[in-house]
């Protein structure tokens, strides 16, 4: 089971900040995961925007990077505090 | 010292603590960011900030280390709230101490530009018209670019 | 608010008071100047500052008014010690509040440049080698010049 | 009687921060006063340096500006606080 985190506006769209998910065998990298989550969770293309970065196990990675069923995967829209 | 906390803090306590750490410095610059009571003409009832630990803390620590490499600082402090806060409450407190003032001003300014545009936080405002996620302003990105220009010249 | 005082003050009290005045601001920048324990390799036992009232206060008031014309500030505070002070004590506290941070940073920076090079104060350090009157450093005059350049461009 | 104030290093050289003085009839402007005070109070040329400004009744004035026996006259070396 992978743990998927949704931050910022993505948490509002999904309705939760996280979920656990069984990744289908066909999903082995971040680019494929992005498309699969976008389609199956009703994000309607929002996750496909290049401003949404993906972190695997607390590290931001470029598409496509490997993902597995034991990873913590975070979808991160543009950041900013202060 | 870096803190990401979900409880209110007082700026006067933060500066009193920092002053003790900064002993021997001639100059202390602080920046305090407060929740504004209005945004785009609407009343703000709550500001909410999310972080992603430990990525958030690690990123701030890296920025503090870059500031220490670039300027001769005797002490640096970053305190950042997360969770729900009300108008007037402190969101962020940055303090930099140095022997002379220019280094302290520039380091505090640099750290705020980092926190506004690169630190791993997400924030939303709750107003009468609903919930609004806030992304950095164009000016914030421009402000950050100043440090890259300075390096290149 | 402008104060020239001959008694010690606490930076944490100054900022707590300022925070109350600055209600509604999103950004507060403070500068605190402290008596350094050493100067040119010597221990400083006492720093002494002279003012010439009311010229000193009038000059600071003019500088605060220039800052308010140049930046959209919601509150400004300048507190300056005179008389004898010991290492670690606060000499000066400047605070500027604004809706966004750039104005607050620039106004505090501008006011410090004024205080360092134009404000009507004279200061001397007492060290083991004697009494030394201190005049602004070349860097202080250069820092001040930045604001004239900015105006001209 | 004019009141004469000495600030900064000038107070150390004179040994006091102020004095009252009867200005000779020949001293009617700041340039003449500067020279007279410098010579009669042992300033040894320090007061003649252009970095020493003169204020008459709390206002900085250029040399030569009028002075009279009822003025408060301050000798001000380079200023700077903070």
TrEMBL record, chains A, D:
Superkingdom in the source lineage: Bacteria
Keyword field: Nucleotide-binding
GO terms under biological process: Mo-molybdopterin cofactor biosynthetic process
Entry-linked CDD domains: Ubl_MoaD
Pfam families attached to this UniProt entry: ThiS
GO MF, one example: nucleotide binding
InterPro entries found in the cross-reference section: Beta-grasp_dom_sf, MOCS2A, Mopterin_synth/thiamin_S_b, ThiS/MoaD-like
GO cellular component, one term: molybdopterin adenylyltransferase complex
Family: Belongs to the MoaD family.
PANTHER family: MOLYBDOPTERIN SYNTHASE SULFUR CARRIER SUBUNIT
Protein name: Molybdopterin synthase sulfur carrier subunit
Source organism (scientific name): Hyphomonas jannaschiana VP2
Organism classification: Bacteria, Pseudomonadati, Pseudomonadota, Alphaproteobacteria, Hyphomonadales
From TrEMBL, chains B, C:
Species of origin: Hyphomonas jannaschiana VP2
Summary of subunit composition and partner proteins: Heterotetramer of 2 MoaD subunits and 2 MoaE subunits. Also stable as homodimer. The enzyme changes between these two forms during catalysis.
InterPro entries: MoaE_sf, Mopterin_biosynth_MoaE
Protein name listed in UniProt: Molybdopterin synthase catalytic subunit
Lineage: Bacteria, Pseudomonadati, Pseudomonadota, Alphaproteobacteria, Hyphomonadales
Main function: Converts molybdopterin precursor Z into molybdopterin. This requires the incorporation of two sulfur atoms into precursor Z to generate a dithiolene group. The sulfur is provided by MoaD.
Keywords: Molybdenum cofactor biosynthesis
A single BP term in Gene Ontology: Mo-molybdopterin cofactor biosynthetic process
Domain of life of the source: Bacteria
């Amino acid at each position: 089971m992978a743990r998927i985190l949704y931050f910022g506006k993505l948490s509002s769209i999904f309705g939760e900040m996280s979920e656990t998910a069984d990744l289908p065998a066909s999903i082995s990298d971040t680019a494929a995961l992005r498309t699969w989550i976008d389609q199956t969770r009703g994000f309607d293309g929002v996750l496909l925007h290049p401003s949404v970065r993906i972190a695997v196990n607390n590290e931001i990675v470029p598409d496509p990077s490997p993902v597995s069923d034991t990873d913590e995967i975070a979808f991160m829209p543009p950041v900013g505090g202060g | 010292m870096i803190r990401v906390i979900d409880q209110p803090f007082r700026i006067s306590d933060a500066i009193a603590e920092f002053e003790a750490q900064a002993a021997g410095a001639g100059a202390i610059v602080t920046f305090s960011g407060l929740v504004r009571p209005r945004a785009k003409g609407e009343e703000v009832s709550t500001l909410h900030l999310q972080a992603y630990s430990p990525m958030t803390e690690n990123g701030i620590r890296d920025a503090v280390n870059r500031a220490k490499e670039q300027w001769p600082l005797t002490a640096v402090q970053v305190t950042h709230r997360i969770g729900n806060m009300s108008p007037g409450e402190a969101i962020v407190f940055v303090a930099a101490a140095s022997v002379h003032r220019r280094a302290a001003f520039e380091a505090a300014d640099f750290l705020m530009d980092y926190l506004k545009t690169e630190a791993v936080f997400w924030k939303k405002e709750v107003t009468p018209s609903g919930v609004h996620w806030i992304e950095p302003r164009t000016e914030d990105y421009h402000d950050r670019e100043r440090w890259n220009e300075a390096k290149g010249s």
